[in-house]
Design brief:
FAM69_kinase_dom; binds 2-acetamido-2-deoxy-beta-D-glucopyranose; transmembrane; 42% helix; 9 helices; two-stranded antiparallel sheet
């Protein structure tokens, strides 16, 4: 006998009338349609249905795992701390970067420049250059142990900067570099290094605006180069829309901070995602 429920399920599929006609007498019904209205026949079909459902379920699980894996991989590729897979960017002139670092470390060795980052930078001279950029700024990205270090300067060599008159007295010099003043007893190499650094607006900006927390943290200097924290690039795949949204919220906070901190009209050049990054220890607002 056909159940009324099963008959109802048929409604809308093949038409009420047709289903009813088929289910009037189950025993007499020989049609495939009868499977759906005769409980005995439905029971026979169940193992097959269950198998199909199981297969579909397993496919779903596999798909979920695959997607989870894809997003895991992409997240880690943007993760600052996972740099095991970092390879030099294609097309960069690694020997040029090494030439610049060698010149800097030679000057440091010869006592011509100084800086707190010099010792570490020049200790082994085995640099793993992962990125290099030289246009209006020289930027060298190194893989140093488990960390990425970024060295920047407006000019590749310290001799490219006009040297400040060596005959100046300490007072004269101190007045000139007062925002940066590193205390008394500066050696000639300190002066040389500092005078190249203070000729670079970005260095001064990074040095003077750490409180805004919007500029990369200045880690140290060596000669004319300053070491800044490595940032997680904003450039990312389209499916990171959620993250991009969060970044934009941070950006709004950044603009608000700059507005509050600076008494001067703010001009922000080259605002594009490529020029923005997120600090690994960026404070939550
Ligand atoms: C790479 O840098 C070295 C050292 O400065 C230079 O001699 C060479 O011409 C550069 N190569 C290219 C392709 O620019």
């Amino acid at each position: 006998m056909c159940s009324e429920e099963m008959t109802k399920k048929r409604e809308g599929r093949r038409g009420v009338a047709r289903a009813k006609a088929h289910c009037k007498d189950c025993e007499a019904c020989d049609d495939a349609d009868c499977t759906w209205c005769c409980p005995e026949r439905l029971a026979a079909l169940n193992p097959l249905l269950r198998l199909i459902l199981l297969v579909i379920g397993m496919l779903c699980v596999i798909l979920i795992l695959v997607f989870a894996n894809i997003s895991n991989n992409s997240v880690s590729s943007g993760n600052l701390h996972d740099i095991a897979a970092v390879t030099p960017r294609e097309g960069i002139n690694v020997s040029r970067a090494q030439e610049i670092l060698t010149a800097l470390c030679d000057a440091y060795r010869d006592g011509l420049v100084s800086g707190d980052s010099c010792n570490r930078l020049c200790f082994t001279r085995k640099w793993t250059v992962t990125d290099y950029y030289e246009a209006h700024k020289t930027v060298i990205v190194l893989k140093d142990g488990g960390q990425m270090t970024v060295y920047k300067s407006e000019q590749p060599f310290y001799t490219d900067f006009p040297q400040i008159d060596n005959s100046k007295s300490y007072e004269q010099y101190s007045d000139m570099v007062s925002p940066m003043s590193a205390g008394e007893g500066m050696t000639q190499r300190d002066r040389t290094s500092l005078s190249t650094l203070i000729q670079q607006p970005e260095f001064i900006l990074f040095r003077l605006l750490p409180l805004t927390r919007v500029t990369p943290k200045l880690i140290g200097t060596c000669g004319h180069m300053y070491e800044v924290e490595s940032l997680v690039a904003f450039r990312m795949k389209g499916y990171y829309m959620n993250l991009k949204g969060k970044i934009l919220v941070h950006l709004m906070g950044t603009l608000k901070l700059l507005y509050e901190f600076l008494n001067e009209p703010l001009q922000w050049c080259a605002v594009k995602f490529e020029n923005l990054g997120l600090s690994a220890d960026y404070p939550k607002r």
